[in-house]
Design brief:
The complex is a heterodimer of chains A (about 325) and B (about 300). Chain A is an alpha+beta fold. Chain A folds into 3 domains: about 80 residues, Sandwich (Jelly Rolls), CATH 2.60.120; about 100 residues, Arc Repressor Mutant, subunit A (Orthogonal Bundle), CATH 1.10.10.10; about 90 residues, Winged helix-like DNA-binding domain superfamily/Winged helix DNA-binding domain (Arc Repressor Mutant, subunit A, Orthogonal Bundle). In chain A, about 50% of the residues lie in helices and about 20% in strands. Chain A has 10 helices and 15 strands. In chain A, strands 1-8-3-6 form a 4-stranded antiparallel β-sheet. In chain A, strands 2-7-4-5 form a 4-stranded antiparallel β-sheet, with no helix packed on it. In chain A, strands 12-13-15-14 form a 4-stranded antiparallel β-sheet. In chain A, a hairpin with a 5-residue loop joins β4 and β5. In chain A, α3 packs across α6, α6 packs across α10 and α7 crosses α10. The longest helix of chain A is centred in the middle third of the chain and has 39 residues. In chain A, about 30% of the residues are buried. In chain B, strands 1-8-3-6 form a 4-stranded antiparallel β-sheet. Chain B has 12 helices and 14 strands. Chain B has about 300 residues and is α+β, with helices and mostly antiparallel strands. Chain B is elongated, with a radius of gyration of 32 Å. The longest helix of chain B has 22 residues. Classes of the chains: A alpha+beta (about 325), B alpha+beta (about 300). At the A-B interface, β6, α1, α2, α3 and α6 of A face α1, α3, α4 and α5 of B.
């Protein structure tokens, strides 16, 4: 068929179910993406388009306009069906395999983009000076890192809201826990770049002791001049035993927490000696209450994150 | 006019009956082939994971299309789990069949394959088209004059955007040449003298990419003088359009309606209801900074 300069050959979303081969002339294909941004592509002699519309009956992807007088070969779906009926059965399987593989590739790309863009979103939030951020600002900033659609970005924000890191409003969001966002981002960064787990990720024993510490601190903690909260070794040992199914507090189980400087030990000043083996000369343990709470929260959400990203993506 | 090629000599596919345990295709095979399972069952075993079963193939399904049509490597061993009937389509058979197809159908097959290959490539490639604009946007999140480790910064950017490290490194050098980023000592660390300019630079780059005129560098002399005048006013100063035009005329600016409409495109004013246009000093400062650092932004320093 011939098409005059300036005329549209097809519109995005049209159900023409045809395949086009440009024989002569130049056309411009425009495509409006989910974010209403227009992408363009030039189609010169030898260019083809509409293959998925022909094979799978999908709507046309592009609005195609002739830049000059053009000659186009149009393959309608009826011709395609007639031709395929003449082919051996396995040829249909090959074609169906190719289209299926295309769908799988598209889906993989979407999922990969969803998962790999998540750290960028955390980066933007972690580095933001404001606690109240417009969703449009997030969307625009994220465009510098990836092509994630608005809908997918919103799904990621919902994950963060589920973890109580942000609160979504109609057109903006409020950062609820800035420290935890930074901790989570750093943990992902260390895992990806240095291939090792961050020291923020705690073992089950470490988590159990810190949970007991928090509980003890809430009930019997003493505020130190440094701003840390201190608990006595005896109280901590009792709480550890109580809440952790009879677990005995030992110096060995506390060692890594002391090394990571998450807890600090205060030596005995009184003559009264507690009965805990290895801990006889430590009167109190202290730590930064808010930091420990954030670390425990990080250790709660971190194992759920990968699964949430896969399920939501 | 659509023409259909006449059918040429076709080499038919081979049909085989195979016993349970027979390996029909493996990564070591030199000849690429498509296997269509007619009856029975095949399993895909991963030789890299102790021949772990990856998936099962049911009658009607086929394997090896990527290997035959795209010359991709075969990843798995395909083995019959029960006595099965398969159709083997080898290179010669496929070639003879493809030769008999109309040219347009070959074009359809090629278009779908190319499309898939491009998608798969894009999964592995950088997530942004302009690494320079992207790196500038990334760097602007860091605090002014904060000492940053060059290697760590590039690794972090590369991780977030999938930009290859050499590309990221080149982009960083471009920012350094424009004095938007400053290396310290032996280049192992760097500082950002003015994060705001990096944002402006990124916006300029994006406008260039989309072939759109970038307003700050396209102001007329009168518009520049109006910009300077507006920068002396308080943020949020509000007037309606007629009052703003009168305001400019009082200060000897010959401003037509067309000029005014053009100024409105610069977004120096925000609509506040009741036809009031309120001055956005942030935007004014943005234009002023762009003009002040024009040489750095354009790379003519």
């Amino acid at each position: 068929m011939n098409i005059a300069a300036g005329k549209n050959l097809c519109m995005q979303g049209d159900n023409t179910h045809s395949f086009y081969i440009v024989k002569k002339g130049t056309l411009v294909a425009t495509f409006k993406d989910e974010q209403n941004e227009i992408q363009t592509r030039n189609l010169g002699p030898g260019s083809t388009f509409g293959e998925l519309s022909l094979v799978e009956g999908e709507p046309q992807e592009y609005t195609v306009r002739a830049e000059e007088d053009c000659e186009i070969e149009v393959i309608p779906q009826t011709l395609f069906q007639e031709t395929m009926a003449e082919q051996p059965i396995w040829m249909k399987s090959v074609l169906s395999f190719l289209t299926q593989r295309n769908h799988i590739a598209k889906e993989n790309k979407r999922k990969s983009e969803f998962i790999t863009t998540f750290p960028s979103l955390l980066f933007i939030l972690a580095k933001s000076d404001d606690k109240l951020i417009k969703l449009n600002t997030i969307k625009n900033e994220l465009k510098n890192f990836s092509n994630l659609s608005s809908l997918e970005t919103y799904k990621q924000l919902l994950i963060l809201q589920d973890f109580r890191l942000i609160r979504l409003q109609a057109e903006s969001l409020t950062i609820e826990n800035e420290t935890l966002i930074k901790l989570l981002y750093d943990t992902l960064r260390l895992r990806a770049i240095y291939k090792n787990s961050s020291h923020y990720i705690l073992s089950l024993t470490e988590q159990a002791i810190l949970t007991a510490f928090i509980k003890t601190a809430r009930e019997k903690g003493e505020l130190q001049p440094s701003g840390h909260i201190a608990v006595t070794t005896t109280d901590l040992a009792v709480q550890t035993k109580l809440s952790m199914h009879g677990m005995t507090l030992t110096l060995r189980s506390l060692e890594t927490l002391l090394q990571k400087r998450l807890l600090q030990a205060s030596p005995k000043t009184s003559t009264k000696i507690n009965a805990l083996p290895g801990l006889e000369f430590i009167e109190k343990f202290s730590g930064d209450f808010d930091r420990l709470l954030n670390l425990l929260e990080l250790n709660r959400i971190y194992p759920q994150l990968d699964k949430k990203l896969v399920v939501s993506g | 006019m659509v023409t259909r090629d006449s059918r040429k000599t076709i080499i038919p596919p081979t049909q085989l009956r195979v016993k349970a345990g027979f390996v029909v295709s493996s990564p070591e095979d030199k000849d690429k082939k498509i296997i269509l399972l007619n009856e029975g069952e095949l399993v895909a075993l991963d030789p890299k994971s102790n021949n772990k079963v990856i998936f099962r193939i049911r009658p009607g399904n086929l394997v090896g299309v990527g290997a035959l049509l795209e010359r991709e490597s075969i990843r798995y061993i395909y083995q019959a789990t029960v006595d099965s009937v398969i159709t083997v389509i080898n290179d010669e058979c496929m070639e003879s069949e493809l030769k008999s197809l109309p040219v347009w159908l070959l074009a359809v097959i090629k278009a779908i394959s190319t499309r898939t290959r491009k998608i798969n490539e894009s999964i592995r490639s950088a997530k942004t088209n302009n690494p320079l604009a992207s790196l500038a946007s990334f760097c602007k999140f860091y605090k002014k004059d904060e000492y940053l480790q060059t290697k760590a910064l590039l690794q972090e950017f590369s991780w977030l955007t999938k930009t290859p490290l050499p590309t990221a490194s080149e982009a960083l050098k471009t920012l350094v040449r424009r004095k938007l980023v400053v290396f310290c000592g032996d280049n192992s660390c760097l500082t950002i003298p003015n994060p705001e300019i990096l944002q402006i630079f990124s916006d300029y780059q994006k406008a260039k990419d989309s072939n759109k005129p970038w307003h700050p560098f396209n102001l007329t002399l009168q518009q520049k003088r109006i910009l300077v005048l507006l920068s002396t006013l308080e943020n949020g100063t509000s007037k309606d359009a007629t009052a703003w035009m009168a305001f400019f005329k009082e200060r000897n600016f010959e401003i037509s309606v067309a000029d005014w409409l053009q100024i409105l495109q610069f977004e120096w004013f925000v609509e506040r209801g009741n036809h009031l246009l309120s001055l956005d000093l942030e935007k004014i400062n943005y234009f002023e900074a762009a003009l002040k650092y024009e040489q750095n932004i354009k790379g003519t320093v």
